[in-house]
Amino acid sequence: xxxxxxxxxxxxxxxxxxxxxxxxxxxxxxxxxxxxxxxxxxxxxxxxxxxxxxxxxxxxxxxxxxxxxxxxxxxxxxxxxxxxxxxxxxxxxxxxxxxxxxxxxxxxxxxxxxxxxxxxxxxxxxxxxxxxxxxxxxxxxxxxxxxxxxxxxxxxxxxxxxxxxxxxxxxxxxxxxxxxxxxxxxxxxxxxxxxxxxxxxxxxxxxxxxxxxxxxxxxxxxxxxxxxxxxxxxxxxxxxxxxxxxxxxxxxxxxxxxxxxxxxxxxxxxxxxxxxxxxxxxxxxxxxxxxxxxxxxxxxxxxxxxxxxxxxxxxxxxxxxxxxxxxxxxxxxxxxxxxxxxxxxxxxxxxxxxxxxxxxxxxxxxxxxxxxxxxxxxxxxxxxxxxxxxxxxxxxxxxxxxxxxxxxxxxxxxxxxxxxxxxxxxxxxxxxxxxxxxxxxxxxxxxxxxxxxxxxxxxxxxxxxxxxxxxxx
Length: 473
What we know:
The protein is α+β, with helices and mostly antiparallel strands. The chain has 13 helices and 14 strands.
């Protein structure tokens, strides 16, 4: 489900349902002036939203205008003037369009200056969403005409849905302008009511569900009338009324399902970043190197591995054969200098950066620059295996943040603990040591040789020929 389909629904669906209620007690509007009013309001509001100054004072004034306008809109529902109906049609659409146009994601309709597939698909999603918004508004108006008692409760509910985020925005602006004290409860309220775009779609779907449930009574009533009458003309009228009522009820169910399932699909599937394939654990051999069979990585697919450093840092890297007709390996960390350690995935024959979605030219993997993965230096391969040294992998600890829990031993008193719970650690001879207390840490730091056996120190040094000198952490 397209992001633009969902965000159009979030911006316009509550207002569209409000307008459906707005017209439900007025004479049916003429199509031409209604369409032109809507299109002009949409254009004006979007342009204003795109160019709206970011000044906090301007934002404050605009928010206050919207809150006053909603209050006046409720008062206008006491009249049945058609001219007033067109006026509010335009004003409410302008308000919704300003918020939609102010969304910075709107610029992502296309990333190029030419007409391409992405642009066509995104515009199609926007047009479809506007069509669905109009369809839902018409259904809402039709059903409320049959259920007039629901009109005011639904009006108040929809206005409350629109007022809540506006009130949160108003409170935030007042706190920024220091006209209102900054408190934790106020910030909590602002966070809850201003980040509720997804909730608006679910609540609008719930409102349509309530209308549909209320419409069951007219549906059953028309069915009984159809079955009770025997006179031919009356029966045909009752049958037609029943079928129209049933179509309206079915259409309302379809409308609410599209809204709810569209938002749910976006939340649970489409908006989620690609999941990384499972990384295969690797360890250092007796020679201080990781060894990977060439046959395991020759196929041109992305093969992900993870090496756990002695401090628990998980260092991910992947290997890919960059050319289909010959062995040319790319050996890189699963991280980018620009985007961090979110990693890369392979879809089809493309390697993609999870963080920014950039497609990586596979033959360039292993070269530094841009959004390419960080190259690993100092590896070698022959026809049988790939070898990566400890020193080459240890550099990768700077690019990753994940630390796994592992059991460690305090070298001073021999007590057992985990690396995540140890408050003190010290790096000596290329190895990280963890301590159960500050006193043990100080003892080790003052004379580390007395706590590290010659055998273990020799093994550490041989495995870390290129490790940095002693370093306190």
